[in-house]
Amino acid sequence: MEGFIKVATVGELKGKPYKTFRFLTKSFAVFPEASGGFYAMEVNCKHQNANLLATPCKGEIVECSRHGWKFNLRTGECLTQPWARLRRIPIQIVGDEIWVCPTRFLDSEA
Ligand code: FES
Q1: Residues 5-109, CATH architecture
Q2: What DSSP state is assigned to residue 44?
Q3: Ligand 1: which residue has its CA nearest to atom 1?
Q4: Less Cβ around it within 10 Å: N or C end of the chain?
């Protein structure tokens, strides 16, 4: 698992909508999936880099507190600027531990 770092445990996310973490200058979050798995995604606004989860968000759609761009936190889609998609990063579950690789983006590998 070269390049992966531990960012949470499965137990920490139980009953919570996400857990945020930082890597270098970027903000990310791990989210539970309805199917029982997890995914991880960058959560810096694609406009001017504001942390989209600096204030708690309960639903799937988050609105940037700085200039109002809206993003879907499940799909990564930007509802304001279609080119400004949030990207997912690789994730691995090892026992109760959640590991991510914040230096690679899954969507750019397609
Ligand atoms: S920084 Fe998010 S809309 Fe401008």
Answers
A1: 3-layer Sandwich (2.102)
A2: B
A3: 48
A4: C
CA of 54 to the centre of ligand 1 (A): 12
What's the predicted TM-score (pTM) here?
0.92
Question: 30-83: per-residue pLDDT in tens?
Answer: 999 989 899 999 999 999 999 999 988 888 999 999 999 999 999 999 999 999
Where do the domains of the chain lie?
5-109
Give me 32's structure tokens.
């539970």
Spatial neighbors of 27 by CB under 8 A, at least 6 apart, are: 20, 21, 42, 43, 44, 51, 52, 53
Q: How far apart are CA 26 and CA 22, in angstroms?
A: 6
Ligand 1 neighbour 69 (Cβ under 6 A): yes
Mutate to test the pocket of ligand 1, among 46, 62, 63, 64 (most ligand atoms within 8 A of CB): 64
